[in-house]
Amino acid sequence: ANLMSALRELIAGKIWGSHVLLQDSCQHSGEPLFDAFVGAQLRRGGHVLAVGFEEPKAALLARYPGHTAQITHINCFSAAQSDAFCDYTQPDALVHHAATIAPPPHAMVAVDSVSAFAVRHGMFWTTAVLKSLAAIQNIDRVVFCANADIVPSDIMAALAHLAAIRVRLPPAPGTVQLEYRKRSGKAFEAEETYTVRDLDVSAAPIAPAPVVRPSAKLAPDAALSFSARAGASDAAGRPYQHSAERQQRELAGVAVEVDPGDSDDPDGDLDI
Question: What is the model's pTM?
Answer without folding.
Answer: 0.71
